[in-house]
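step=encode ok
step=design start
structure_in=
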């Protein structure tokens, strides 16, 4: 007996290992009680085989222990690597670094309330230039997000306007009234490799507590040529 397991159980398991089914053998034999044998059958097998059977059983025991040890070692190694990757990503995300992001877009924060210039909090395939110009690598539909906390100095409603220009063409406009932590979104068609100017304007009675702008490409990893390039 070995850890309460009959010798014939180990012989059967060894036979499966010889056929290259070591990992399946453990589950198969454990779940099929019909192939297990009692101690009396094991004794008869040993008596028929004599010393050769005993040697085979000892060899089978060692191989089973080795297989189970290797399997446990591989499982522990995989678990350790998975935890290392998970906690590494979590730590970097806490610092504002997003890993393995398939999305294309940019997330901006207003840092100068007089010159209306922005800072990049996150971006992928979309870049900010000179604090207020954005260049996209893929032309097509984008969702434009606008988060803001806008207040008024008097009883009249304060207003903040966002205008996006490519050259002299207005490609997007959005207006936000004075309110606490409001957000709006809508779609815009943007051309690739052409600067998009972000223009912010407001009424004199308006105070911007904070303002964030986001652009998110709506076609994922797909990037198509514009119709102008095909002609």
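sequence_out=
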């Amino acid at each position: 007996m070995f850890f309460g397991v009959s010798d014939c159980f180990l012989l059967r398991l060894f036979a499966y290992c010889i056929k290259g089914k070591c990992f399946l053998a453990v589950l198969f034999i454990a779940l099929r009680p019909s192939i297990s044998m009692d101690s009396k059958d094991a004794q008869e097998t040993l008596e028929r085989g004599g010393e050769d059977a005993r040697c085979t059983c000892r060899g089978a025991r060692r191989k089973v222990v080795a297989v189970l040890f290797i399997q446990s070692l591989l499982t522990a190694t995989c678990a350790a690597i998975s935890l290392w990757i998970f906690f590494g990503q979590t730590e970097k995300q806490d610092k504002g670094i997003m890993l393995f992001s398939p999305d294309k877009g940019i997330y901006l924060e207003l840092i100068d309330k007089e010159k209306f210039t922005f800072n990049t909090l996150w971006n992928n395939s979309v870049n900010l230039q000179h604090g207020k110009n954005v260049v996209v690598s893929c032309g097509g539909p984008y969702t434009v997000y606008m988060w803001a906390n806008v207040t008024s100095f008097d009883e009249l409603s304060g207003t903040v306007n966002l205008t996006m220009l490519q050259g002299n063409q207005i490609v997007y406009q959005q207006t936000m009234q004075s309110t606490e932590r409001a957000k709006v979104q809508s779609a815009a068609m943007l051309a690739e490799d052409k600067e998009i100017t972000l223009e912010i304007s407001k009424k004199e009675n308006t105070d911007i507590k904070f303002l964030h702008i986001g652009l998110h490409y709506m076609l994922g990893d797909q990037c198509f040529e514009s119709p102008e390039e095909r002609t």
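step=design ok
step=annotate ok -> Residues 1-7, 13-38 have pLDDT under 50 and may be disordered.
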